[in-house]
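User: Please predict the structure of the protein below. I'd like the answer in structure-token form so I can feed it into my own downstream comparison script.

Assistant: Understood. Taking the following sequence of 394 residues as input:
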Amino acid sequence: MEPLLPESNSPVLAELSAEIFRKSGELKASLPSQVVRGEVANLVQEMNSYYSNLIEGHKTLPREIETALQQNIEVTADDKRNRRMHTAHIAAEQEMRDMLRECPDTDLYHVNFITGLHEKFYSNLPEEEWYTMSKTEQRYEIIPGELRDYNVDVGRHTPPDHSTLQDFLNRYCKFYSSGRILKTNRLIAIAAAHHRLAWIHPFGDGNGRVARLHSQACLVQEEVDGDGLWTLSRGLARSKVEYYSLLQSADRQRTSDYDGRGNLSDQALSRFCEFLLKQMLDQIEFMVGMIAPQNLLQRIEQYLRIVRIDLKPRQVENFSRLLKALCLEGEIARGQLTHILDLKSTAVREVIRAGLSDGIISTSSERGPIKIAFPNKVVEYYFPLLFADLPVDP
């Protein structure tokens, strides 16, 4: 699977890497409040699950899940399965993030971390999902966190024999965990590692999800994920045909003596890395525009004044002041709201009750501070295009 880091097109890849580092810092600074960043990050986690599962042919919009639950609508077996995939992905990502907070220096390229991601995802699914089918309709068992013990074909690519998986993963870890990879090349290495992990195809199923979760973990460790404010999977789902095409292209052997010195094509790996870095940059820039305070406050105002025709003018005015203050400051003690809303304490309590009932604000306790909330009903107005209703290829 050599080369593991492309030599072709180095100036372009280096320039993209530098811009990603710069833009990720701009993204994090876009929302000064850590509390609000946390609320948006929760949305992005749902978005990451939605798009990663969409790439695999499973489509479950969060608002559809909420509507079905609220209205007690009978759902199909496929809908139930898609919902399980959605919640399993969110749980696996949360466990991964919790672990990185506790152990930030974890070796993310070690086989134990990679198998751990697989185990986290599948352990959140019922055992009836622990299998895969070959093209000849042969059923193979999947054990969460275990490497496959059978051979597979993936399109035109034949991954390594199952008996050699440990050797390939050891080489993968030894190279990408090496301190010899310069900081300026770390993002390029993440992109290259994404392909090489897919090329090894260590599991019977779930390899795509694990590769994307792994890349997200690496971005967290490199401190370019903006505290969870963007996700690579959105870009990959929106460019799925190109994503798969370049993944497949990077599987091929080198074409000439000018195509690197490894077994596989250096130029094809470079093109894949360029694509992945451009997707990272595109998604960061998308979220910068999405959460810029002036843009977000304007969309909140439009939601209250145009969409919420059920609200009285005075309610619109009170909610507008409250939500704008919360968006900028994060949490606000209840006692401070009399000044912000310019109301007496009894009227402030009524605004709080109405906001909590409506779901647009939240609190951790009966007398605790107030913070902004993003229920599914407001997401498409506050954050348009966050969850694009894309077509699904089975």
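That's the full token string. Strands lie at 131-133, 139-141, 361-363, 370-372.
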